[in-house]
Recover the amino acids of this structure.
């Protein structure tokens, strides 16, 4: 189906932070499968995990006990707020599980009328029905029938509207990305996240965090909400959890998940042995001090250098945003055109984003030397963009 606006680039292989096209051209990949290949391409530990498990067992039904699920779930719970985990194949499936968990929680409490879910403009939670209604981006919801009941959108940063949402007696949950990805790399202020926790506790509302893109070490801590010193009730993760292999997970406290009893949810492929083997290997690496320290070191350098480019190219760069290695550069020229110039002129791959920005999303294990190369290539793209802006 013609649903992708693909770049004119046919990729053949990758290694670390580099990609090669079928014609042999080498690119520096700061897209990382959109924040997914957290350890770069063809990481040896992930490759070995696939090989070892593929020779033993790929798939069995969840009617059987799968030891790899216990191992990865134990690790996730040990390094998060969560008590329980449901494994999925993607981030949007994890969001669907989170939304169902929130509503089932209130049913278990004898309050089935509490169905209202509040999302925020600029958010992105995936492409399934619940996910697109939670984000309520018109470009994703138009043409797919009437709006689903119980979903509401708030303006990002509108504290009065959010207060009213918390005070709504039918409120079930709020869902947000602590650092928005697609919407423009906007980070919710840490004091606002702490205030949300207080309001949620006061009014019996659940907090769902979508850390599909900003979690798993991307901001310099394992979970983006850790910077605020608070925790959600439910959290959706995916992308980097498999290092490029399709894995997602919905994490929750035992209290928040008390309505998720036998038979109310399930998945054919979620938590399959192959996915669990790769996920365990990826999580062990991404959650290590070495990777998290590297993210903070390289992110500090990249952000400083991008701010420097913004000063030198005010006719190209408006603003630098983001946290850790989830960086956004708001542009004067059209961001899609800039992505093409970076690709063709500088052999640098960057991702698009809302509010006319490009996202810089390198692997979490990118070296300082590779980061310097990325800055040089970004500068080259800015130089080319300047000539186009002048025209």
């Amino acid at each position: 189906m013609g649903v992708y606006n693909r770049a004119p680039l046919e990729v053949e292989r990758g290694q670390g932070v580099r990609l090669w096209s079928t014609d042999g051209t080498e690119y520096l990949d700061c897209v990382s499968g959109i924040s997914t290949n957290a350890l770069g391409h063809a990481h040896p530990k992930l490759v070995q995990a696939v090989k070892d498990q593929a020779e033993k067992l790929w798939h069995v039904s969840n009617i059987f006990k799968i030891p790899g699920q216990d191992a990865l779930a134990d690790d996730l719970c040990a390094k998060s707020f969560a008590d329980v985990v449901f494994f999925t194949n993607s981030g949007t499936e994890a969001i669907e599980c989170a939304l169902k968990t929130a509503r089932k929680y209130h049913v278990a409490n004898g309050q089935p009328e509490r169905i209202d879910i509040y999302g925020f403009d600029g958010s992105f939670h995936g492409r399934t029905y619940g996910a697109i209604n939670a984000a309520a981006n018109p470009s994703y919801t138009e043409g797919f029938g009437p709006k689903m009941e119980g979903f509401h959108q708030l303006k990002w940063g509108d504290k009065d509207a959010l207060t009213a949402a918390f005070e709504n007696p039918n409120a079930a949950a709020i869902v947000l990305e602590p650092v928005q990805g697609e919407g423009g790399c906007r980070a919710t202020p840490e004091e606002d996240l702490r205030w949300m926790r207080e309001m949620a506790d006061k009014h019996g509302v659940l907090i769902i965090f979508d850390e599909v893109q900003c979690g798993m070490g991307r901001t310099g801590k394992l979970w983006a909400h850790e910077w605020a010193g608070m925790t959600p009730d439910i959290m959706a993760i995916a992308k980097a959890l498999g290092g490029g292999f399709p894995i997602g997970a919905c994490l929750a406290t035992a209290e928040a998940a008390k309505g998720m009893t036998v038979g109310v949810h399930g998945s054919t492929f979620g938590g399959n042995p192959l996915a669990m083997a790769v996920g365990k290997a990826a999580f062990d690496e991404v959650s290590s001090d070495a990777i998290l320290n590297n993210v903070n070191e390289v992110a500090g350098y990249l952000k400083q250098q991008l701010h420097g480019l913004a000063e030198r190219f005010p006719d190209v760069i408006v603003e630098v945003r983001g946290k850790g290695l989830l960086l956004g550069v708001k542009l004067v020229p059209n961001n899609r055109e800039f992505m093409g110039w970076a690709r063709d002129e500088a052999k640098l791959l960057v991702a698009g984003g809302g509010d006319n920005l490009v996202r810089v999303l390198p692997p979490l294990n990118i070296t300082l030397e590779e980061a310097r190369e990325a800055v040089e290539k970004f500068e080259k793209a800015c130089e080319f963009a300047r000539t186009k802006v002048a025209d």
Summary: The mean pLDDT is 97. The longest strand covers residues 317-323. Residues 289-312 form the longest helix (24 residues). The radius of gyration is 21 Å.
